[in-house]
Amino acid sequence: MIAFKLHKCGHPDTHKLFKITGSKSESNRWLILQSLFSDLVLNNLSNSDDTRYLKKALDSTDHILDIGHAGTAMRFGTALFASQAGKSVVITGSDRMKERPIGILVNALQSIGAQITYLNKEGYPPLEITGKKLKGGTVTLQANVSSQYITALCLIAPVLENGLEIELIGEVTSRPYIEMTLSILKKIGCDIQWDENFDDNVEKISIQPIKNVDKLSQTVESDWSSTGYWYTWVAFQNIGYKISLESFYNDSMQGDSKLQDIYKNFGVETSFEGNKLILTKTSDTIDQQLHFDLTEQPDQAQTIFVTCLGLGINVELTGLHTLKIKETDRIEAMKEVGSRFRESVITTTSDSIKLILPHNSKLLHDFVVDTYHDHRMALSFAPLCKFTDVQINDPMVVTKSYPYYYEHLKSINVSITEI
Ligand SMILES: O=C(O)C1=C[C@@H](OP(=O)(O)O)[C@@H](O)[C@H](O)C1
Ligand SMILES: C=C(OP(=O)(O)O)C(=O)O
Q: Domain extents for the chain?
């Protein structure tokens, strides 16, 4: 296994412009829809592994499809292949993917006639799928585990003869990702109703079928989730420091665009010049005790945790119940690696993490970041090289979402050596 050392970089270059590629969430939704409606033309698709894996699986005629670590590709692909008559595939992924549950989605698909069997452990990939022409109807599923199950069903709904009524039981998690899916479906002409008060503790999404989509060209907005690492970076710098990122819209479909508000807490202001996003450090006055509920921005947990760790701010993050089934158990990973950076007391529950720093908490020596096959461990902890050398083990995990991350860091003067 290789490791990178990011050498302490006290005075990085400022006024840089980075081109971030398309959102992997938007890209993977559009790719599923493009395989259903070939008249869609897509621009600025993500260059992430997750999008490359999905594209490869969709273009493949192989029986065994490996989608690596890509949760969206696994969940969206399962629904797609199950609804395609004549298709017969085994869908599998990395070792970690085989530990990420999919039973809630499989049950919902089976309830409308899908033929899916587990090849290994009940409720987990790999899956054997024999595609069938599904008619649709009503499905009921738990909504508090992963929104990706719901998106997967929504994406195939337009081609089901009777459309789909999706009853969501319990508190809906990662809601902005479902909103993104429905916004995209509306763009291709779907008629959708979302009744948030359908019944006690139940919401209902109804999607009508459509025959075809008129020729439509779509440019995917760049990835807000990747901007989080630059928000952290700017938060660590002196007043006046700025960097720019493109191409972003201020009416984004991505829930992580909430970073604009969140980082005001850390003295980072966001402005737009056309589609250019400008992040500027404007203030050093920061509350020393913060709390964020990240039910709607689960992918930013590590980012915000590291920002607080670097700035020496006590914080409690809640709403993290989905983190245990992501690329690694992210709550435990943050606790372990965070405690190696500086003197601190870090406590966790199954859905929260709390960071308490003693007065004048000192940085510890020889800071090492284990990444546990999770891109967001490397991406989020790297900016701590503002304060000390950072060793990142298995650093290329970043390609899951942000392949050019280290090139971008190098271009602002971060020295990186392989060890
Ligand atoms: O639909 C999507 O594109 C995603 C939904 C979220 O997952 P959960 O709904 O499982 O929290 C998010 O964490 C993931 O990175 C991408
Ligand atoms: C959780 C993530 O991705 P996925 O679930 O699609 O693998 C992520 O990118 O942080």
A: 3-20+222-418, 24-219
